[in-house]
Amino acid sequence: SGDSVDRKLVSEQLRLAYQLVRRCHEEASRTIAVLSPASPPLQDNLLNTLADAARRISGEQIRTVTRIEGTPLPLPLRTADALLHIGREAVVNAAAHAMPAEIAITLQYGERYVELTVVDNGLGFDYTADNAGFGILGMQKRARDIKGSLEIRSLSGRGTTVRICANLQSHSTFHRLRRAFRERMFGLAAH
Question: What is the pTM of this model?
Fold first, then answer.
């Protein structure tokens, strides 16, 4: 009896490891495809890339609605990539678990921030930090990597909202400082 429990435990752990490896491989493949020279730059085309991914993932069973708010601007590649993966994971989770009729993806550009919101009208779930699976843990890590804030709101029977907000000010400050440094160095070298 103990031997069969050990086998079941090992089998379950192997299944989870296989799913994680498969998911990482799929994600790497998608990232390579998105970043290939044939595709439009992700930084300029994030919403369309997310909408295409949502339609591929959900097929025709789920309506996908997209909206841009504010004035779109090119995003740092690292930020655009993180938003793409967080948004894609939110869509995958909704399509796989929530049975929504609609998924709405909004990309809002502010003066110093960009915010991605993915809302589904599906089943929802009782979200707590304790019941976060690989997908949510991955979204949290990507948000931390870009110093963004991730918010997940869901209630059983009421759908789910995933919102990631990333500050763009530190990026533009870095570029201004780098440009000023180069100009000063170039100016000093010219004398």
Answer: 0.70
